[in-house]
UniProtKB/TrEMBL annotation, chain A:
This is DUF934 domain-containing protein. It holds the Pfam family DUF934. It comes from the Bacteria. InterPro entries: UCP030820 (IPR008318).
Automatic annotation (TrEMBL), chain B:
It comes from Jiella mangrovi. Keywords: 4Fe-4S, Heme, Iron, Iron-sulfur, Metal-binding, Oxidoreductase. SUPFAM superfamilies: Nitrite and sulphite reductase 4Fe-4S domain-like (SSF56014), Nitrite/Sulfite reductase N-terminal domain-like (SSF55124). It comes from the Bacteria. Residues 52-110, 347-399 form the Nitrite/Sulfite reductase ferredoxin-like domain. This is Nitrite/sulfite reductase. PANTHER family: BLR3264 PROTEIN (PTHR32439:SF9), FERREDOXIN--NITRITE REDUCTASE, CHLOROPLASTIC (PTHR32439). Pfam families: NIR_SIR, NIR_SIR_ferr. Residues 119-272, 410-545 form the Nitrite/sulphite reductase 4Fe-4S domain.
Length: 171, 562
């Protein structure tokens, strides 16, 4: 697995576990599926952990856990399955401020969209990272300087920039 | 007409560079064929039966002469010297080479055009009324809304990987010429009781293999809330639309399976949660866009032109052209003219490079440098001075563009069909040509009156056959092309799906079957009723009976010969 942020490749602090035994045996924070959260939290109430959910998960099922986790990984079934982008927006709307990971066979061409929808990192299967190395991801995220949609990404949208420019001009 | 500012310009240029990079990364193996496919589709590049096809966006069908001249240049340099206008107000080139595509995109960017989202599972090019800004029955010009949506939907970070394609149409008029009820989202500008302008929002219309009429999910949406509300609709669709079966992935299926009320509740719930002010366009920005669509500098003229009346009296062909192809203009002394790309025997929607240049000259000189593309694969000169109509008619005739058949039985919509398309199961264009030849006589066409025929060469319904007054669907049956005929389809504010008349027939029998349907109409017709008015009154039964009689007579003939 390769983990990529806006700055480049980074180490993954989290260990994936999908049984309680594996989660308890792991060193450092674990990344566990939704159904394991209650069991794990009972045994390790103070431990830092991450939550893994599929793109099709309802926000109502995710929201109750957001205050307790430092990572949410949204699993993409395929690069062309955009449900994860909408789930990311819903998670942010709940006030979540931790790490938001897009995980799965995404392609570099989606990096800018993932970041604009609120993801902070992407976790790729090794085969994909070999074909599309980190440099391609970093280049792809900067191909478009601007976006039209307000409420996405960090910078102002084109509509907001025009608005600001006109205000500045008339001031 | 809208003009790009520095942001739009850079956006389109960077999109071209991005696509060029994607082509390179496909060639060096970084992108697999499966990954590259949706990327090229989102930039309008299809792989057809014989070659690539490039679909160019004509946002809400509006163009100027400089753009059309550039298309003529591209057609001659990179294609076979012609282009094809589609039922989505776009233009397709059927023979470009992959290696030339980035260069073509550069040339398009030079004239403020692009291929962004003319295909793929994303929000497609927004369509509108070809008589926007012209029609007398308009509450408000729909083009500023369409342009705002073009910008908002371009590379939307959240909605580029939808379950399926998504089409939005906008109308500002009472009479719906944009077919909003057969779109994924249909927007109709209207006034509420207080006189405020807003939108009636329909969701879940569509044709294809499961045709459906859109459901009104919001009776009145204040104009300023448009983008946030559409974002709510899109988010519900992106999250809940089916991804297990591409034939059930359109939003119409979600609306149908969820139920209209439940779907409305889901959208309202999402809408209540999202932060409208951070999403909606600033009022000043909406006004900035709208200012581009202000009326051109019309002259003050009398309601009708004596010059034109006199010329019509002396030239019956001109009179017929004005009567058939003219559309009443809101400005006294002006007229909008439909240019039917439907010469008898020609391919519906095709235009040669020479015709493009001639037409660009006409639009520049006589229509404030502007023209429109219609979803009936025709063109419109929106602002012609009535005094100039004789000169315009002469110039159109010279270019082979003066067919006086707009809306008549020979003004046929046809998809590319088996002649071009990889999905087609039957020919479409030759059927249109055969019908046009059968009804070539102008007097006969006039007697029959308005009768839009629409032909699709497969179940995907690109020819909109479900909403043709007469619809023809070509299928493959036991190794033979087989055609099903419907009547009563309507894409206007009386939106309705056509009803099948009986079993499918052979290609060779189609023109005679259409003649039989026309005979039924002429027999049933009361007073000045149009074909559609008659069908609405009588229902399909007499047409079914006529069609059955036609099939029986055919069978007897065949048996007699055999």
């Amino acid at each position: 697995m390769t983990l990529i942020t806006e700055q480049g490749a980074v180490e993954d602090r989290f260990t994936r576990a999908d049984t309680l035994e594996a989660a308890l045996a792991a060193d450092g924070p674990v990344l566990i599926p939704l159904w394991l959260v209650a069991e794990y939290a009972k045994v390790r109430p103070q431990a830092e952990f991450g939550l893994s959910v599929t793109g099709s998960t309802a926000i109502e099922d995710v929201a109750p856990h957001l205050a307790k986790v430092s990572l949410v990984a949204v699993e993409f079934a395929a690069f062309a399955d955009g449900r994860g982008f909408s789930l990311a927006q819903k998670i942010l709307r709940e006030g979540y401020q931790g790490v938001l990971r897009a995980s799965g066979p995404l392609i570099a061409d989606e990096f800018a969209d993932a970041l604009a929808c609120g993801f902070t990192e992407v976790e790729l299967p090794e085969t994909l990272a070999n074909r599309q190395p980190v440099q391609q991801w970093l280049a792809a995220k900067d191909t478009m300087s601007d976006h039209y949609q307000s409420g996405y990404g960090r910078g102002p949208s084109i509509l907001q920039k025009r608005h600001a420019a006109r205000k500045g001009a008339s001031a | 007409m809208y003009r790009y500012d520095e942001f739009d310009e850079r956006f389109v240029r960077e999109r071209v560079a991005q696509f060029r990079g994607q082509v390179e990364r496909r060639l060096d193996g970084s992108l697999s064929e499966d990954e590259f496919k949706p990327l090229r589709l989102k930039n309008g590049l299809y792989l057809q039966l014989h070659a690539y096809m490039l679909r160019i966006a004509v946002p809400y069908g509006t163009m100027n002469s400089r753009q059309l001249r550039q298309l003529a240049h591209i057609a001659e340099t990179y294609d076979k010297g012609y282009g094809h206008f589609t039922t989505r107000q776009n233009l397709q080139f059927n023979w470009p080479k992959l290696k030339d595509v980035p260069e073509i995109l550069d040339l398009l960017a030079d004239v403020e055009m692009h291929c962004i989202q003319t295909s793929g599972n994303c929000i497609r090019n927004v369509t509108s009324d070809q008589f926007a800004g012209v029609a007398k029955d308009e509450v408000e010009d729909p083009r500023p809304t369409a342009e705002l949506l073009r910008q908002w939907s371009s590379l939307h970070p959240e909605f580029v990987w939808l379950p399926r394609k998504f089409k939005i149409a906008v109308t500002g008029a009472e009479h719906d010429r944009a077919a909003i009820k057969v779109h994924d989202i249909g927007l109709k500008l209207k006034r509420d009781d207080a006189g405020e302008i807003g939108y009636e929002v329909s969701v879940g219309g569509g044709l294809g293999r499961t045709p459906m009429i859109g459901k009104i999910i919001k009776d009145f949406l204040p104009k300023s809330e448009l983008l946030a509300y559409l974002e709510a609709v899109m988010r519900v669709y992106n999250s809940e639309g089916r991804r297990d079966n591409k034939y059930k992935a359109r939003v119409k299926i979600l609306v149908h399976e969820t139920g209209e009320d439940e779907f409305r509740a889901m959208v309202e719930e999402e809408y209540a949660k999202l932060d409208g002010p951070t999403i909606n366009a600033p009022q000043e920005e909406v006004e900035r866009i709208a200012a581009y669509f202000a009326s051109p500098a019309y002259e003050t003229l009398p309601e009708t032109s004596a010059t034109l009346a006199k010329a019509q009296a002396n030239d019956p062909a001109l009179a017929r052209f004005v009567e058939q192809n003219g559309f009443a203009h809101k400005q006294p002394g002006y007229i909008a003219l439909t240019i039917a790309l439907k010469e008898i025997g020609a391919v519906p929607g095709d235009m040669s490079a020479a015709q493009m240049r001639a037409f660009a000259d006409i639009a520049e000189r006589y229509s404030f440098d502007e023209f429109r593309v219609t979803h009936s694969q025709n063109l419109v000169l929106p602002h012609v001075k009535q005094d100039d109509v004789p000169a315009v008619f002469a110039a159109l005739k010279e270019a082979g563009l003066a067919s006086a058949n707009a809306g008549l039985i020979t003004d046929i919509i046809a998809c590319p069909g088996l002649d071009y398309c990889a999905l087609a199961t039957a020919k479409s264009i030759p059927i249109a040509q055969a019908i046009a030849k059968t009804f070539a006589d102008e007097e006969r066409q006039k007697k029959i009156g308005l009768l839009p025929i629409k032909i699709s060469g497969c179940i995907n319904a690109c020819g909109h056959h479900h909403v043709g007054a007469i619809g023809i669907l070509g299928l493959e049956k036991g190794g033979r092309e087989n055609y099903q005929i419907t009547v009563g389809g309507d894409a206007s504010e009386h939106a309705a799906l056509g009803e099948r008349l009986g079993p499918g027939i052979d290609a060779a029998d189609v023109p005679a079957a259409i003649e039989a349907i026309v005979e039924t109409y002429l027999g049933e017709k009361q007073g000045g009723e149009s074909f559609m008015e008659t069908v609405r009154r009588t229902g399909p039964e007499p047409f079914k009976a006529g069609f059955t009689a036609f099939i029986e007579s055919r069978t007897l003939e065949t048996e007699a010969v055999g």
